[in-house]
Amino acid sequence: MILKEVSCILMNKKNILSQYDLFVTIVVTVVGSAAFTYPRKLSEVIGSEGWIVIILSALILLPFLYIIYKAIKINGYRRLVEMLQRNFGKFLGNVIAIYIVLTGIFIMAIEMRTFAEVIKMYLLNRTPTEFIILVMFLVGGFLVRGEIESVIKFNEIAFWLMFVPVLIGIPFVLKGSDFSNILPIFVHEPLEYIKATRVSIFNFLGFGILYMIIPMVKNKKSIVRVTFKSLAFISVFYIIITLSALFVFSKEYNSQLLWPTISMFSTVDMPGNFIERWEGIVMAFWIIFYFTTYINIYYFSSEIIRDVFRLEDVKVSLVLITPIIYILSLYPENIAEVYSIQDRFIPYTDPIVIGILPIALLITGLIKARRVKDEI
C-alpha cells in the first residue's frame, strides 16, 4: 500500500520544473563553497593561467552533460534508481545507487567540515565544531523535509543572494589592483594544461543533480540548451572570481592563501564606511554558497535512499544518512587533513557519476529500446 502511494506521489511530481528552475538548481549546486578555494588551487598548478584551464574544463564537460541528457531520454525520463534497476538488474542497480549516495555523503562531510572550520576562524572562535555542524543539520533537515518543492524554491531565492552581491562587489575589490598580474599567457607546456584541467574539473562537482531534476522538467526540448547555459554561467563566474583574485593578490600570493576569495572580499573599502564589518558580509556569502550545494546533494541522496529501500518519504532517509555525514565530518583532525583527504578521494568520485555511468546507461538503454522494437 505504501509503495503504491509513493509511486502516485512520484508520478505527480513529473513535469513540475520550469527552465528557470533547471538553470538555478544546476548553478547553485555546482557553484558551492569550492569557489572560495578555486583560485588557490589553480594558482598552485598553472600560475596566472587558471582562466584558460576553466574554459578547457567547461569544453570537456559539454559532451558528458549531453550524454547524461541522452541517457535519461532514451530511458524514458525515468527516475535514477528506476533506470539503474531496469538497465543493470535490481541488485547491481541498487549497488550503483548506493555508491552515488556514498559519494554524495563524502562530499557533504568534507564540505561540512570545511564550512565549520571557516565559521570558527572568522566568526565563532569559541563555538565547538560539533555544535556548528549540528545546527547545519537541523536547518538543512527542516528544508529537505519539505521535499523537492521546498528545495527548488530555496534555489530560486539563493541564486540571487549568491551572485548579485558578489558581482556588485567585484568593482570595489578591483580598486587599485594590478591587471598585469595575468601576464604572460600561454607559457606552459600542453601537458601542464592537461594536469591543471584535471584539478580544475573537480571544482565542477554537482552535475550529478541532473539525474534527479531532468525527469521533472516540463519542457524537455529545452533541457540541453538550459544545461549548456548553466555550464556557461558557472564557467564565466569562475573566470571572474579567478581573474579578480589574480588582479588583487598575484599568482604567488594566491597560492599561499587558504581561501583567496574570502581574503579578496575582506579587503573591500566601501566609501564612507557604509559597512564597518565587511568580514561578516563575506561570511554570509560563504554560508549561502555552502548551503546550496549541501541542500541539493542532501535531498538527492535522501531521495535515492528512499527509492532503493522503498521508504515512505525522504524524512526516513534523512534519519539514515545524517549520522554517517556527521561522523565523517568530524573524522579529520584539522582543515589541513580535510583538504588532504579531499585531494586523495575526490578525483575518483564524480568522474564515475557523470562520466562512466551515463555512457553505460545510454548503451544499455539503446539495447533495451532495440529489443522492445524488435519484439513489436
Structural commentary:
The chain is mainly alpha-helical. The chain has a single domain, classed as Amino acid/polyamine transporter I. 75% of the residues lie in helices and 0% in strands. The protein contains 16 helices and no strands. α4 (50-74) crosses α9, α6 (90-122) crosses α14 (314-330) and α7 (129-144) packs antiparallel against α14. The longest helix is centred in the N-terminal third of the chain and has 33 residues, at 90-122. It starts with a helix and ends with a helix. It is a multi-pass membrane protein. The chain crosses the membrane at residues 20-38, 50-69, 90-109, 129-145, 157-174, 194-214, 226-249, 280-301, 313-331, 351-369.
Topology record:
Layout: H1 2-12, H2 19-30, H3 38-46, H4 50-74, H5 80-88, H6 90-122, H7 129-144, H8 147-173, H9 190-201, H10 210-213, H11 223-254, H12 260-266, H13 278-308, H14 314-330, H15 335-345, H16 350-375
Helix pairs in contact: 2-8, 2-11, 2-13, 3-9, 3-11, 4-9, 4-11, 4-16, 5-6, 5-16, 6-7, 6-13, 6-14, 6-15, 7-13, 7-14, 8-13, 13-14
Q: Output the CATH topology.
A: Amino acid/polyamine transporter I
Give the SSE order as H and E letters: HHHHHHHHHHHHHHHH
Q: Which strand-content bin applies to the residues?
A: under 5%
CATH architecture: Up-down Bundle
Give the count of structural domains.
Answer: 1
Counted beta strands: 0
- The SS-based structural class is mainly alpha
Number of helices: 16
User: Largest sheet at a glance?
Assistant: none
Q: Briefly, what CATH class?
A: Mainly Alpha
Low-confidence blocks of residues: 1-12
Helix content: over 70%
Q: Measured on Cα atoms, how large is the radius of gyration?
A: 21 Å
Gap between N and C termini, in Å? 33 Å
